[in-house]
Design brief:
- The protein has a domain at about 15-60 and about 90-100 and about 110-180.
- The chain has helices spanning about 15-25, 25-50, 110-125, 130-140, 155-160, and strands spanning about 55-65, 75, 80-90, 100-105, 145-150, 165-170.
- It contains five helices and six strands, in the order ααββββααβαβ.
- It is α/β, with parallel strands linked by helices.
- Helix content is about 35%, strand content about 20%.
- It is globular, with a radius of gyration of 21 Å.
- The protein starts with 12 loop residues before the first helix and ends in a 20-residue tail after the last strand.
Length: about 190
Amino acid sequence: MGKPAGIGPGSGSAHVARETEVAVRRAGPAARWNAALAKEWIGQQETEQASGLAFYVDGHVRVYHGELSKLPRHYVPRERFYLRATVDYWVNALGGEPFCYFNQAVDHGLVQAMRGEVLPWLEANVSVSAKQEQRMAADPRVPRFTVIFDREGYSPDLFRELQPQRIAALTYHRYPDGRTGVRRSSRNKP
């Protein structure tokens, strides 16, 4: 098929590079604007969720088809193959409305993304209402907010880290019944 428009020799690559540089410089105001919008949207969610705030965190693999970078390979479920890709971790409301996402070129998994970027962002941008503060003061088991994620985020160590911060986690066990997820072929059975 060839390269996408705007990439490669004679296609205005320098112009694209300049536009990218300008966009990167403007990322500071854009990030502040994103945080301000997210705070407003989170405030709207708080009035709708009587049981407390909950956020759904999910990872999505974004395949890279270019030749300019040698990104690490990630398993792409829809292709059933390992391809060069990045991973985006999205923070959404329960209805699916996105608040923000974090792109990982080198992905160490959902647990590390939660520790490094997602939870610090949530702690910085989620304010606790007076009503929620009253509930938290009355019952030490009431969380500040809840994060919901799939089995990739299952980590008892992460759960222990979240408990003193009063952040609840909903997920399911990655390997129920002690299975490690490693399958043996019939030829390898003892």
